[in-house]
Design a protein that fits this description.
With 292 residues, the chain is of the alpha/beta class. The chain is 39% helix and 24% strand. The protein folds into 2 domains: 11-177 and 231-291, Vaccinia Virus protein VP39 (Rossmann fold, 3-Layer(aba) Sandwich), CATH 3.40.50; 178-230, no CATH class. β6, α6 (150-159) and β7 form a beta-alpha-beta unit. The protein starts with 10 loop residues before the first strand and ends with a helix.
Length: 292
């Protein structure tokens, strides 16, 4: 089955619906708490969707069933109380057209739409708005693969005003780690850009000695090559959350999002400067794990 429907919408599995339900649950608590703070010191709070997507993705079905799901922008727009603003980013012009239409569907919501690479838009236009203000933002980072730069995460952390809900692509990382040799320099650079650190690669690859027959000289020659065993998804997720812990005060336990064959695709987690935010997320994640 294709990843996209005939209108270019995403076709998503049950696991992506789970992710959206977890997002909606957290948004509700976040908005309720922040709204109370507005009566005291808070000037406003905003929802930023850095990978806004196709708005109404289609559920992957066994037959020709057509069921549409509310994507992350709709989950945010339906959250009560309302956010002070909704800033949606996507790189694709087709998706931007769909996102623009939300302004007609939600005339009471303050929606701004940005087309382009979210690392640039966040860094150049949106993050600076929070540097010296009594405003807060919740940022959903939900890429297909390895598209969120660690530098962007650091800039968000440095504001001390942004909570991030990250869907970290475990599959995206394991896919570029060959089994029988170290990743090539471009992939190491990509991992460094995404994770901010690649020291862990040394731990993953172990030398494996093997005796090879050198026919030319008719003698045995010892060669050593680097190999890796299976990557434990939980270990990789914890590696990423440890990195987050160095720049955010509080980070939730990651929840592993698995597909129908039980392979881990993503690790979802919240990073914040607020203890309660992480406590609430851990409770939501625990309930989800229990129900699975
Ligand atoms: C997984 S989908 C998002 C799904 C959406 N969050 C939802 O739950 O309904 C990823 C989206 O990111 C967009 N995208 C890919 N790379 C991007 C980038 N560097 N900056 C902004 N958007 C990007 C794609 O066009 C796609 O719509």
């Amino acid at each position: 089955m294709s990843r996209f429907g005939s209108d270019g919408e995403d076709i998503i599995g049950k696991w992506s619906e789970d992710k959206l339900d977890l997002l909606a649950k957290y948004l509700q608590s976040y908005s309720w708490i922040m709204n109370r703070e507005k009566e005291k010191w808070l000037k406003g709070y905003y929802y930023i969707d850095a990978f806004a997507g196709s708005v109404r993705p289609r559920a992957k079905g066994e037959d020709d069933e057509q069921r549409y799901i509310e994507g992350s922008p709709l989950r945010a727009l339906r959250t009560e109380p309302k956010f002070g603003g909704y800033w949606f980013i996507d790189v694709s012009s087709k998706r931007i057209e769909r996102i623009q239409r939300l302004k007609e569907d939600f005339p009471d919501c303050n929606i701004e739409v940005y087309q382009g690479n979210c690392n640039e838009i966040l860094g150049d236009q949106l993050i600076p708005k929070f540097n010296s203000s009594s405003k807060r933002a919740f940022i959903f980072l939900d890429p297909y693969g390895l598209s969120i730069d660690w530098e962007t995460i650091k800039k968000l952390a440095n504001t001390k005003k942004c909570d991030i809900f990250v869907n970290f692509s475990i599959m995206g990382v394991t896919r570029i780690l060959p089994k029988d040799k170290k990743p090539n320099p471009e992939h190491i650079e990509l991992l460094n850009r995404i994770m901010g650190n690649t020291d862990w690669i040394e731990e993953v690859y172990k030398p494996q000695s093997s005796i090879q027959l050198n026919l030319f000289y008719d003698q045995n020659e010892e060669t050593s090559s680097l190999k890796r065993g299976p990557i434990n998804a939980e270990w990789l997720a914890n590696l990423y959350t440890e990195q987050l812990r160095a720049i955010f005060e509080y980070v939730s336990q990651p929840v592993l999002i698995k597909n129908s064959t039980n392979s881990v695709l993503y690790a979802l987690c919240l990073a914040s400067h607020n203890k309660t935010a992480v406590k609430i997320t851990n409770q939501i994640f625990k309930r989800y794990e229990k129900l699975k």
